[in-house]
Amino acid sequence: MNYLNSFSAEGQILIYTILILLITVILLFVYTFNLRIYINIKKKFIQIKQNRWEKSIFEYISQDSSRARFSLKLRYRYFKIFGEFVENYLINLKGEDFERIIQLLRDIGYGKMLIKALNKTNKWGKAYAAHLLGLMKYKQAESKLLKLFYHDKSTVVHFNSFEALNRIGSKEELPQRIKAVIKNKHIRNTIVIDILLGYGAGINPVLIEMLEDPEIDSQGKRLIVDILSFLKAIESSKAILRLARKTDDVELKIGCIKAFSSLEDPGNASYLIESLNSENWVIRSLSAKSLGRIGVKAAIPVLKDKLYFDKNYLVRLYSAFALKQMQEKGLHALKEVLVNQRDPQVCQIIIYVIQEGILT
Amino acid sequence: MSGFILKIIFFFNYYVLFYFIILNGIYFLMTILSFFTIRRYMNEYRMIKHRRVFHSSFYHPITVIAPAYNEESAIVESVKSMLQLNYPEFEIIVVNDGSSDRTLEILKEGYKLRKSLLPYQKLIPCKDIKGIYASKDYPNLVVVDKINGGKADALNAGINVAKYPLVSSIDSDSLLEPDAMLKLVRPFLDNKKTIAVGGIVRIANNCKIVAGKMVEVKLSTKWLPKFQIVEYLRAFLFGRVGLDALNSLLIISGAFGLFKKAAIVENGGYLIDSVGEDMELIIRMHRHMREKNKPYRVTFVPEPVCWTEVPETLKVLGRQRNRWHRGLIDSLWIHKKMLLNPRYGIVGLFAMPFFFFFEMLGPIVELLGYIVVPLSLYFHVINVQFAVLFFFVAFVFGIVLSLSSLVLEELSFRRYPKYSQVLQLFVFAVLENFGYRQLHAWWRFKGIIDFFKGSKQWGKMEKKGFETNV
Fold this sequence. Notes:
Order of helices and strands of chain A: HHHHHHHHHHHHHHHHHHHH
Helix content of chain A: over 70%
Shape of chain A: extended
Number of helices of chain B: 13
Distance between the termini of chain B: 64 Å
Largest sheet of chain B: 10 strands, mixed
Structural class of chain A: mainly alpha
Number of helices of chain A: 20
Strand content of chain B: 15-25%
Largest interface: A-B, 56 and 55 residues
Oligomer: heterodimer
Number of domains of chain B: 1
Strand content of chain A: under 5%
Helix content of chain B: 40-55%
Largest sheet of chain A: none
C-alpha cells in the first residue's frame, strides 16, 4: 500500500543504520575511557618528568648539579610538555635566576629544538614554539620568526611570531610589523593590546606616528589611543588632540576623550570644554568627567550650566562629580545650583555628591 | 471517515520520518561544529592564559546584578561568592524584589548596610525602588530594595542603578567561578560589536562548596540531577556552541550572561510579564539590530562556569520545564514576524524556524508519535518491523548525541575527575532515553497547553542552598 508498509530495502537501511549507531555508541564509550586512561597516564608521566626537571632546575640554580645530568633527560618529543613546565619559570623568574635558566636552556639545546618545531609541527605547535622562543629571548630564531610572521597563513602563528620577535628585542622593520598586526582584523584586540603592552613606553613614538597614518582605520587608531592612554604617554597628548579634532568617528572621539582623562594634560581643556556642547551625550558626559579629573577650574561655569540645563541625566551627574572634584570653588558652585534648582533629581544628585563622594 | 483518519495517520508517519531526518541532521551538524569550536577554544586558551591583559584596566568594568526573592537561607553565602570574583573592577547589585522573608534584614546585618542616596536614572521600566543600600565593608556592594515585580522587573531595576557599561545577570543562588567574568568579558574586547555573551551553567548538587568556592565536583547521589547533568552538557556543549558557530544563538541563560548595558537600554530592558525574559531579550536584540541594520554579535563562551542547583524532585523539575517551555513559546510568539523572514538573515531563516518547529513543537510531535505509531500498527499503515527498527534508530541516535556531548566534555574541560563519574554519566546518557525523555516531552507539552490557557506562573522552586552541600 505504501512506502513504509514494506520491509525490504528500507528495513535493511534501518538495520544498517542501527548497526552503525550501535558501533558508534561502543566506539564513543571506548574512546572516552581510553582518552581518560591516556590522559591520566600522561598526567602521571608528565608529573614524574616535571618533578625530575624541577629538581634539576633547582639544583642547577643553586649550583649543585652539572648541566650534563640535566640535559640527558630532554628529548625532542617532549618539547611541548617541557615547554609547559618551563613556561612558568620563564614568565616568573627575574634577574640572575632568569639568566641562569636561559643559559641552561640554550646549553641543553632547547632553543634549537624549538626552531626544529617551527618547521615540523602543526600551527598550534609552531605558535607554541614561537611563544617559548620569545620567552627565551632566543636571538638565533629571529630570521625564522620573521619568515613565519610574514609568510605563515595562520593568524595564531602570525601573532605569536610577532610577539616572540618583540620579546627577543628585534628592531627589524618594527613599525611595519606593528602596523601589520594592527591592520590584521583576524587577530583579537586582547592579543594586540597584550603584545603592544609588552613593549612598555618604548613603543610610544611608533604608535604616535601611526595616529597620523591614513592606512590605519578608525578601529586601529582607537586601539592605539587606548594603549597610549593606558601607558599614560603624555607625549601623545597633542597627536591625540589633533586626531580628536580631525575625526568624525564618534567611537574614536570617545576614545580620545577617555585618553585625555587618563593623561590629565591641561592642554586639552579647551577641547573638552568645547565638547561639552557636542550633540552626542556620551561625548558630553565623558568630557565633563575628564574635566573633573584634570581639575579644570575654568570649566566651572559651563559645568554649572550643564548641571542646570542638560537634557541627559548622565551629563548632569558627571558635571556634578566634576564640580565636586574642583574643591572649594566647585563645591561652592554645587551648593549654588542646589539652592536655585527645583528639579528633585538634580537635587538628589547634588546631595549625593556632596555627602557621599563621586562614582569612579 | 476511517479512510480520512488512515490518510492522516499515513501522512503523519511521513512527517515524523521527515522531521526525524532534518532534526537529527541539524544536531549532527551542530555536534561537528561544536567539536571544532571547542578544540579551537582550548588551543587558543592555552596560548593566552598568561597574558597581561587579563589583569589590566583594559577590561571594562562590570556590574553583576543578582535578583533575590525570599532567599534568606542562602543570600549571604551567595553574595560572599560574588564578592570573591577575580576581576579588576566590578560592582555587585543585589535586588531584593519585595521579599516577604528576612532577605533584606539578613543582608543589612551581614554586610553592615546603610541607606545610600546613590542617584539613578529610570532608563527602563521597573516597579518603584524603596531604597538603595551601600555596604561599609564592601564599597562595591549595592543592595536595591524594591516593590515586588518579578525577576525581569528586578533585573531592570538593577540595570537602572548599574554604573558600569557591562551588566551581568546571574541568579542569586548560583555560584560563579572566580575567573568566570574575566573569561566572559573577552568577546567584548575582541569584537566591539559584541552586545551579549553567555557562559556555561553546570550542576552543583552534592558538590563540595566551601566559603562560596567550588572545592570538589561530585555527582549527585540522586537520579534526577544526573539526568540533568547529561542534559545540560548536551544543551551547552553542543547546543549553544553549535548555534553560536552558526551565529544563531537565541538564548543566553538568565543564570549567567553578560550584556552591553546600552544595548539592553536601547531595547527597552527585560520584558516584565514574560516567563522567558532571558530568551525574549536576546530575540528582541537580534530583531532590533537587524531592523536598524546595525552590526552586532551575540555569542557563547564554553568555559566560564556558573554552578547552580537543579531540582531533585519530579514535581519541581516538571514545573521548571513547563515554565521554560512557556517562556520559549512566549518569546517566539512575540517575535513571530521574524519566522522565515529573510530580512532577519540567518536568525529569521534558520534559528527561529529551528526553535519553532523542533524545540517548540517537538513535544507535540514526540507525544503524537507515541500515539500514532501504535495506531499505524493497528491499522497496518506501517510494517511492525519497520516501526520497531525506526524507534530503535531514534533511541540509539539520541544516545549517540548524548554521548557525543560527554565526549566533548572529556576532550575539553573534564570537570568530573573520576572514572566512576564518567561511567555513571554514560549510563545516564543511555537511560535518559527510556522514561526521562518522554517525561520531559510531557512536561513541555503541558507547558504548551498552559501557555494557551494564559498561565504566567513561575511555580515555586525548592532549593537547599549551597551551604547544605558543604
